């Protein structure tokens, strides 16, 4: 039977890249997000792809869509959440407004919990499934000047470990991937939205060079490499992996 993967944030670079890899493996992919045009653009050229406007922080919408996937296609086998959280970086914590610190933590917790809990309930009923989370790993390694990003990541780290313990006996795995600065996902515009000081081409190149220098490999893992790792973790080849994060940062931290 064809597997079904639901990807929250499917219109983004990471979500669509993972979808493309999974589709090539015969998985039916469901790309979810808040903007239909972006979802359609992401799905173009991906075989067996469906799109739907679903906000990952909207509990009722998430549950309704997930249940519809099971009703229409028989199963929900893979759930991946990789959404924008409203991170604000580049400001010392002592100068950061409370709202800017709390927003990514709240969004990460709400979206991460709603999507994972929904998938876990349906997967436990069918006796199998994989829930995948993705963040920068800053909650594990510690990263200054990143505002609420570290606490938001730590929230997801804890959720993955605790949910894996609870759902393991039901045949459901919960795993995570740490990434930190994928070159293809970075642009001056995107960086400027998070940190106004980085909104120029020169600043972008400086960030990319700095990221390369921090890694053991002296090169940043590429989007395709990250997508292949996520697809592997979601596959039966990784059935022995749960309750942990795979470090795909090129050795930025250990």
Q: Helix and strand layout, with pairings?
A:
Blueprint lengths: L3 E5 L4 H12 L3 E6 L2 H8 L5 E5 L5 H15 L4 E4 L16 H29 L2 E7 L2 H4 L7 H19 L4 E7 L9 H7 L6 H14 L8 H11 L11 E3 L7
Parallel strand pairs: 1-2, 1-4, 2-3, 4-5, 5-6, 6-7
State the separation between the terminal residues, measured CA to CA.
Answer: 38 Å
CATH class membership of the largest domain:
Alpha Beta
Largest sheet data = 7 strands, parallel
CATH fold annotation of the largest domain = Rossmann fold
Parts with pLDDT < 50 across at least 5 consecutive residues: none
**Approximate shape:** globular
Q: Tally of extended strands?
A: 7
Q: Output the structural class.
A: alpha/beta
Q: What value does the Rg take, in angstroms?
A: 18 Å
Average pLDDT rating? 95
Written overview of the protein:
With 254 residues, the chain is an alpha/beta fold. The protein folds into two domains: 4-182 and 223-247, NAD(P)-binding Rossmann-like Domain (Rossmann fold, 3-Layer(aba) Sandwich); 184-220, no CATH class. The chain has helices spanning 13-24, 36-43, 59-73, 98-126, 138-141, 149-167, 188-194, 201-214, 223-233, and strands at 4-8, 28-33, 49-53, 78-81, 129-135, 172-178, 245-247. A seven-stranded parallel sheet has the order 3-2-1-4-5-6-7, sandwiched between helices. α1 (13-24) links the parallel β1 (4-8) and β2.
Name its key features.
9 helices; 254 residues; Rossmann fold; 47% helix; 15% strand; single chain
Can you describe this structure in just a few lines?
It is built from nine helices and seven strands. With 254 residues, the protein is of the alpha/beta class.
């Amino acid at each position: 039977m064809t597997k079904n993967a639901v990807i929250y944030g499917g219109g983004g670079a990471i979500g669509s890249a993972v979808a493309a890899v999974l589709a090539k493996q015969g998985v039916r992919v469901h790309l979810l997000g808040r903007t239909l045009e972006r979802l359609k653009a992401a799905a173009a050229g991906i075989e067996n792809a469906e799109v739907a406007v679903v906000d990952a922080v909207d509990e009722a919408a998430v549950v309704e869509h997930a249940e519809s996937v099971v009703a229409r296609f028989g199963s929900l086998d893979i759930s991946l959440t990789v959404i924008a959280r409203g991170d604000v970086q580049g400001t010392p914590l002592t100068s950061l407004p409370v709202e800017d610190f709390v927003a990514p933590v709240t969004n990460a917790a709400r979206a991460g919990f709603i999507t994972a809990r929904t998938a876990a309930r349906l997967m436990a009923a069918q006796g199998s499934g994989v829930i995948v989370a993705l963040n920068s790993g800053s909650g594990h390694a510690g990263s200054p000047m990143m505002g609420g990003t570290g606490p938001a990541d730590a929230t997801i780290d804890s959720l993955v470990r605790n949910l894996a313990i609870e759902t393991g006996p039901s045949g459901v795995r919960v795993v995570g991937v740490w990434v930190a600065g994928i070159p293809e996902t970075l642009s001056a515009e995107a960086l400027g939205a998070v940190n106004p000081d980085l909104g120029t081409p020169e600043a972008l190149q400086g960030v990319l060079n700095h990221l390369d220098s921090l890694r053991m490999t002296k090169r940043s893992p590429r989007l395709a490499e990250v997508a292949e790792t996520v697809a592997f973790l979601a596959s039966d080849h990784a059935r022995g992996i749960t309750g942990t994060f795979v470090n795909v940062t090129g050795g930025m931290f250990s």
